[in-house]
User: Which sequence fits this backbone?
């Protein structure tokens, strides 16, 4: 469970901080937003949330990349994250699957209840 990580020793927190900085750098330097800047005053998109989750589990849990059959194209910088989140079924009923393809709606905003569900599912399925 996530709460078993607390309190963290500095040597345990370092990889998580590194994952956070790496994720922020990936988004900040991507073409995700005009000028390549992360939109702190804008809603987070589903593909941005997916890359946050992917970077966290990749660095903190040494997770391996995963593949999923997606219905819509994903930004190249977010592809690994969306593939991982979809392959692990870390999404709610707003994501639709038909004909073997999953419509993750990567460029849609992530709603507050969807974010809460994403964090809860990550905790249940991965930790």
Assistant:
């Amino acid at each position: 469970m996530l709460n078993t990580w607390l309190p963290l020793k500095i040597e345990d927190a370092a990889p998580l901080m590194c994952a956070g900085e790496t994720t922020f750098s990936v988004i900040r330097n991507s073409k995700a937003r005009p000028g390549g800047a992360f939109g702190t005053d804008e809603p987070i998109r589903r593909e941005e949330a997916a890359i946050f989750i992917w970077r966290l589990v990749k660095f903190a849990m040494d997770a391996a990349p995963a593949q999923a059959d997606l219905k819509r194209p994903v930004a190249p910088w977010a592809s690994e994250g969306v593939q991982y989140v979809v392959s692990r079924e870390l999404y709610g009923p707003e994501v639709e699957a038909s004909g073997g393809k999953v419509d993750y709606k990567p460029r849609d905003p992530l709603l507050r209840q969807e974010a809460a569900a994403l964090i809860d599912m990550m905790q249940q399925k991965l930790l």
Remarks:
- The chain is about 45% helix and 5% strand.
